[in-house]
Amino acid sequence: MRRLAFILLLLSLTVNLTFGQQLPLFSQYLYNKFLINPAVAGSDGYTSVNLTAREQWVGYYGAPRTFSFSVQTRMLKKSFILKQTHVKRDIYRPKSDGKVGFGGYVFSDKNGLVQRTGFQLSYAYHMWIQNSTQLSMGLALTGYYYKINEKEINFEDPNEPWLNNNLRRGMFVPDATFGVYLLNARYSLGFSADQLFQASAKIANNAYKDFKMSRQYYLFGSYDFRAGNNALLQPSFLLKMSEQFKPQVDIGVTYIYNQDFWGGLAYRTSGALIATLGVKYENIFIGYAFDFTFQEIQKVTYGTHEITFALKFGDNSRRYRWLDRY
Question: What would the pLDDT profile of 41-93 be if each residue is shown by its tens digit?
């Protein structure tokens, strides 16, 4: 039990080292908000495929490592019904208003001793509250396999209870996420709550029965300012907070040229500076982020690197009411 208590201490230190490391941390959320808010699914009318790879604190043993692959789409005006007119002329009317979005992603997240591999399935409903403003609500169901990597632990006693522990063998944990998303041609605003069930990890004896995942909350927003005929200046923020009231804020600004190139800087209140670069070619999007932390750990790492690769499909008839929005 002394060894178990030591491992639990390591887990808690890992969780508290950075915000919300019970969950993956991303720096390019602006380019795939779906990963933190299910209401985003299908909000822009495209079918989007996104691959994200993040290596945190490169060179530091046991540092967080995250991979995700997501797909989202919107059920748009594909089917039609036939309507007869008084002048015997057939008119085809859309059967669907395109209000429903679907999405899903799979992920693998390793953080020290803890490893999570799972999936999320999302449903979103989009409605117009003004001619140019869309309100979306989304719900997602998540399932992941949560375990301790026993290869990282050495035991002198072969009868150590931890070796037969549920967490060491791994367990399947279900959970849910809810989100709201407001989208306009000039701005976006979203809120989501993750890990609604606060699924518990049933480990050891009753002394650790309260070892569970904390709810996480996200609030983000952005606004586009014209910076010339073909350029935009986009300030943005992301507030992340758990029920333990440990808020973290990303505040940044991005320069976008002709919707084809962008670069930005952001400051994270936990003590990090984030630089992002991106390029778009036809329907292909590639983004890169570098995080430089002001904490002591930066002295023994090569920083944090994150790469995003995305494809967006859909011609003008499938787009949202405004065009050329990345």
Answer: 998 888 899 999 998 877 777 778 889 999 999 886 554 444 444 444 444 44
What tokens were used for 255? 């320069």
Over the Cα atoms of the chain, what is R_g? 22
Q: Is 166 in a helix, a strand, or coil?
A: helix
Residue 161's SS3 state is: helix
- Residue 309 vs residues 67, 120, 191: alpha-carbon distances, Å: 12, 19, 25
Buried b (16+ CB within 10 A) or exposed e, 207-220: ebeeebbebbbbbb
Mean pLDDT of 236-244: 87
Are residues 298 and 290 in contact, defined by beta-carbon separation less than 8 angstroms? Answer: no
pLDDT tens digit sequence for 111-153: 777 788 899 999 999 988 877 788 999 999 999 887 776 666 6
Strand runs (DSSP E) across 224-319, as ranges? 225-226, 231-242, 248-257, 261-268, 272-281, 284-293, 304-313
Query: Which residue ranges make up each domain of the chain?
Result: 2-318
H helix or E strand, kind and range, residue 231: strand 231-242
Return the bridge partners of 125, or none: 100, 137
- CATH number of this structure's domain 2-318: 2.40.160.40
Kindly report the pTM of this predicted structure: 0.78
* φ, ψ dihedrals at 187, nearest 5°: -145, 165
